């Protein structure tokens, strides 16, 4: 499966927002930095933008948590409905033709909504409904978009995967019946 930079940027921003803002974490400054890091123009986040983006991020999480293809399509459609007003092709900065879901004159919140909704829709199409998920380690709420070759990723990071492997090993190592 091939993903070019622009097709993946919406998914990457969605993943980063969900992982940053979970459970009240993050703040307006960190949010602005995150968006600047993903090349958003004028990524100025005040209290109003922060509140709107937190709400939106709660909805982004539902796409990663969807446990069936049908559910995933429904959660993405709900985002598209609110987040994307128009779609058009453009080629700029030496990039080939790719989809844009918002205009540069739209507000920051509108641009974030449009890019993440549109990017998730493209990803779900390319990934045939799969490859989005939540970390398999108990207690970790991070989400991920799986672009690995096999598409069997279960953890948000190698660190969580290793921690879980160690725990499983310890459980297995215990003699039966002991505590
Ligand atoms: Zn572009
Ligand atoms: Zn994790």
Molecular structure report:
- The protein is mainly alpha-helical.
- It has a domain at 5-126: Orthogonal Bundle (Jann2411-like fold).
- The protein has helices spanning 5-21, 28-37, 47-65, 69-83, 108-126, 158-173, and strands at 88-90, 98-100, 132-134, 143-145.
- A two-stranded antiparallel sheet has the order 1-2.
- Helix 3 runs parallel beside helix 5 (108-126).
- The longest helix has 19 residues, at 47-65.
- The protein is globular and about 60 Å long.
- The protein binds zinc ion (2 copies).
- One zinc ion (ZN) is lined by residues 135, 137, 140, 142, 155-157, 160.
CATH class categorisation of the domain at 5-126:
Mainly Alpha
**How much strand content do the residues show?**
5-15%
Q: What is the global morphology?
A: globular
Could you list the spans in which at least 5 consecutive residues all have pLDDT below 50? none
Number of strands: 4
CATH architecture of the domain at 5-126: Orthogonal Bundle
Side by side, the strands of the main sheet go 1-2
How would you name the CATH homologous superfamily of the domain at 5-126?
A: Jann2411-like domain
Say what oligomer this is. single chain
Cofactors, ions and other ligands in the entry: zinc ion
């Amino acid at each position: 499966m091939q993903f070019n930079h622009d097709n993946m940027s919406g998914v990457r921003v969605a993943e980063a927002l969900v992982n940053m803002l979970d459970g009240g974490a993050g703040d307006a400054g960190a949010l602005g930095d995150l968006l600047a890091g993903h090349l958003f123009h004028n990524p100025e986040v005040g209290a109003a933008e922060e509140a709107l983006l937190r709400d939106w991020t709660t909805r982004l999480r539902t796409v990663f948590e969807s446990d069936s293809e049908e559910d995933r399509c429904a959660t993405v459609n709900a985002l598209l409905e609110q987040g994307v007003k128009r779609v058009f092709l453009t080629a700029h900065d030496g990039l080939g033709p790719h989809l844009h879901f918002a205009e540069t004159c739209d507000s920051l919140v509108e641009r974030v909504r449009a890019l993440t909704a549109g990017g998730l829709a493209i990803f779900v199409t390319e990934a045939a409904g799969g490859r989005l998920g939540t970390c398999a380690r108990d207690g970790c709420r991070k989400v991920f978009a799986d672009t690995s070759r096999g598409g069997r990723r279960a953890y948000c990071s190698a660190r969580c995967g290793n921690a879980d492997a160690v725990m499983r090993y310890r459980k297995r190592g215990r003699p039966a019946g002991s505590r």
